[in-house]
Amino acid sequence: MQIWVDADACPAVIKDILYRVADRVPLQVTLVANQLLRVPPSRHIRSVQVPSGADVADQEIVRLMEPGDLVVTGDIPLASDVLKKGGYALNPRGEFYTNDNIAQMLTMRAFMDELRGSGVDTGGPAAFNQGDRQNFANSLDRHISKMRRQA
Questions:
Q1: By C-alpha distance, which of 63, 65, 90, 87 is closest to 76?
Q2: What is the pLDDT of residue 108?
Q3: 18-21: long-range contacts (C-beta < 8 A, 24 or more apart)?
Q4: Ramachandran category for residue 78: left, alpha or beta (phi over 0 → left; psi -120 to 50 → alpha)
Q5: CA 48 – CA 119 distance, rounded (Å)
Q6: Beta bridge partner(s), residue 90
Q7: What whole-number distance in Å separates Cα of residue 89 and Cα of residue 45?
Q8: Looking at the domain that runs over 3-150, which CATH code has it been given?
Q9: pLDDT in tens, 27-68
């Protein structure tokens, strides 16, 4: 198992958690982004820069990932593609996307896009907070432990 990160919009505190996990476990963590990323020197952490463009990083993650890999993303369509390929998808707030919840999330995303397209101000997501950071760390630890037990 390795961890892929949709890094363009991933909060820095989440990246920091992943950097620590990469060396502690050890586990390969790969950040994929449209921009050049600085990552700590480690044989377990690398970054991949892809050309600019809509969904280019997402497509690269899906292309490179293997079934059983974990993808950290807030992008619901990417999470759907990851699940279809047999991977796991975790958002930065510590919630797993699953085959049971992804269809509803895609529908809600489309509905919100439609509202915004018609001029309705839907606001944005709540500010990222310490609780979100802790939820992510706990979910990640539980997932890694589970995968190691199964291996």
A1: 90
A2: 78
A3: 18/45, 18/72, 18/140, 19/45, 21/140, 21/141, 21/144
A4: alpha
A5: 36
A6: 72, 96
A7: 19
A8: 3.40.50
A9: 999 999 999 999 999 999 999 999 999 899 999 999 999 999
